[in-house]
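Subgroup meeting minutes
Present: P.N., E.W., G.H.
Scribe: E.W.

1. P.N. recapped why we're keeping a running log of single-chain structure predictions: easier to compare across weeks, and new members can see raw inputs and outputs side by side.
2. G.H. added today's entry (381 aa).
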Amino acid sequence: MNTGGSASSNNSSQGYQPLKFHNRRFSFARAGQEKILVMGRLALSLCLALLALSFLYQSKQIEDNLARQRLLEVSLQDLLVQSTALRHLDHLHSYQVKLDLESQGYGSAQEVVNQLAARLAIIETINEPKKLEEHTKNLRQHLMAIDSSINRKQANVSLFVEQWFTGLGALNSTIIKHNQTSSQQIDKLHQLNLILALLTMLLALGSASKIIWKKSALRLRVNTRLFQIGCESRTDLLTGLLNAKGWQHLCDLHLKATSQQCLFAGSIAVINIDYFKQFCDTYGVYAGETRLCELAETLKANFRPSDLIGRIGEHEFAVLLPNCTASDAHRIVERMRTSKENMVEFSAGICDIEQSQSIEHTMAMADQAMYQARRKDNKNS
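Output recorded in log:
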């Protein structure tokens, strides 16, 4: 079925002009946030590196302290063992004292004192912690008193021996407290190292997540851009409708789907603006583009969302109406032609899509009907 239509023209309509939105302020703010995040990560990495160096220095100090502490413990243990010989000095000139000293490897009481003085000198050399200096000084005085009593053959050696053991006990208590403090420092350092490891792990995970997120965001932007390019390649930039390539592609897909299911494909309407070249020569290209946009808006307002509307030529449009006969399409076109909102004069040709016919064949039949309507210059043919 063919139909031709005419309507009065309106030359004063506003033209269509694509709009582009640029949000530079948002871009600058986002770039500033990215810079702040990068600087924050660098600052955090620097802090973690400084903490690692500090913990390494502390570990080195603790290792040195532990080495001195082990040497101190060995020296104190030897001093305690050798000090037991002082218990036999109650009677310096008795034969039993001499036998007891010989049983422990000492030839005389003076040799015992000399051995204790040598061990005490080692502890004084270590002098870790500093609080040992007072105790070693007292022990040195007690040892000198014992040595003086032995040389003078005095009977009050046992008094100085008890003072020696009292000072030795105080020294041992100080060393035990120092060992406990060192153990606490080691535990604290281990906790700090654990915290540092966790922070480093979090930073690494954050950096890895950031890289993955950037790659994902980049991939999304690329895919979005490719989709936009694909849409732009099938879209008429002036009217926003499908261009000839996009319309042809979607029509082919529709015909393939309906032919496989043996369904009625629908109909096609070809619409051509009348006297478009003369209009552009009279009012200019800008007014011609305005007229094209007006007709495009009219088509979108009157046809269904499921209908495929495309601009397939300079001033030629095509509509594929799925599941719609030529008679139904004729009524839609006629309603659009007589609408008060329509300000564009056009001619139309409508044709059913026959089974096993290509879209090109159907388009040729619709074009022929349109040109017949234009030649007859009537509303119906």
